[in-house]
Amino acid sequence: MTPGSGEGGPMKDCEYSQISTHSSSSPMESPHKKKTALKRKWKVFPGRNKFFCNGRIMMARQTGVFYLTLVLILVTSGLFFAFDCPYLSVQITPAIPAVGAILFLFVMGTLLRTSFSDPGVLPRATPDEAADLERQIGNIEEIANGSSSGGYRPPPRTKEVVINGQTVKLKYCFTCKIFRPPRASHCSLCDNCVERFDHHCPWVGNCVGKRNYRFFYMFILSLSFLTVFIFAFVITHVIHRSQQTGFLNALKDSPASVLEAVVCFFSVWSIVGLSGFHTYLISSNQTTNEDIKGSWSNKRGKENFNPYSHGNIFTNCCSALCGPLSPSLIDRRGFIQPDTPQPTAPSNGITMYGATQFQSNMGTEVRLTRW
């Protein structure tokens, strides 16, 4: 009797063959399955944002006003270069279209940089981090309820940190499941917590925060110069033609100048005013959100003095416009790893948002006094 020809022999060989075949083929199939299952993080991003160019461009969902901004700038500048610059370059100086082109390119560059970038969105807590944080909050609230009367209401979900001698409250975001770092706020339109949140600007189609504020400021400042520049030389063009052919004939010869003058006249006041307002904010190191709420006083001796101000206008401007650009925290173009375990949040009471710990270079002392 040959080996394996007895009772149960063929069955064992068959079973062994099936098992070995299955196990040898699975390593060849699993990498392919994992490769096809990977997705970019921007495809499942929880906020209300739109992404283009495989996640490289990030904007708010409502972008209709942004397209209006583009049309106004492109049409007004296009009419100026097409109808006014040929005459002005010959009759006055060719430097006029050159300067106008530089201003136009700078305006468009800063606008697109503001609109297409991550404003400083904070990552939401992972399920494990949120569960751990809720467990900590629940334990503290249970202790508070047990040691008080029946009508006691638990304290609000806040923490306190001390920044340059000023106590700042960190509020808990029920949507992102994090304690927001100082100066962060939740944008209701984009449904994201944004670091150093200034405001949501529909004209640029994005939030304005820590990572794109300097580009927003350079956009409105350069747009102010461009608007004044076009308006001034359109009027110069009309006056120069009027001296040669008369006022009515000048308007007939260049009807586009009338449209440019009207658009620039009605928009220059709001643009220049907005530039002046943000210049004041930068000089005092405040955000629009803080100024509207009246969070800080400009006087250092007051009880609610601004802890973020360096006490010097020049230093405040350099801090807002010339400091290093913070990296994006959401990694929107990264791949989702389904088999990777989620990191757990530390239980030592340190303020966390997502997987990033709050850091500051302004001498921040963390004092977790209460929730």
Overall description:
With 371 residues, the chain is of the alpha+beta class. The protein has a domain at 41-119 and 199-296 and 304-322. 49% of the residues lie in helices and 12% in strands. It has nine helices and twelve strands. The protein has helices at 9-37, 64-91, 95-115, 127-146, 213-245, 247-253, 255-284, 288-293, 313-321, and strands at 49-52, 57-60, 158-163, 166-173, 178-179, 185-187, 192-194, 199-201, 206-208, 352-353, 356-357, 364-366. The longest helix has 33 residues, at 213-245. Mean pLDDT is 80; it is low at 1-34, 148-155 and 341-371.
The whole-angstrom Rg is 30 Å
Q: How many distinct beta strands?
A: 12
H/E series, N to C? HEEHHHEEEEEEEHHHHHEEE
Distance between the termini: 81 Å
Alpha plus pi helix count: 9
Strand content: 5-15%
Q: Summarize the main sheet.
A: 4 strands, antiparallel
Strand pairing plus helix content: what structural class?
alpha+beta
Uncertain stretches: 1-34, 148-155, 341-371
Strand order of the largest sheet: 5-4-3-12
Helix content: 40-55%
Q: Which geometry do the CA atoms define?
A: elongated
Q: Compute the average pLDDT.
A: 80
Summarize the structure in short.
The protein has helices at residues 9-37, 64-91, 95-115, 127-146, 213-245, 247-253, 255-284, 288-293, 313-321; strands at residues 49-52, 57-60, 158-163, 166-173, 178-179, 185-187, 192-194, 199-201, 206-208, 352-353, 356-357, 364-366. It is an alpha+beta fold and 371 residues long. It has a domain at 41-119 and 199-296 and 304-322.
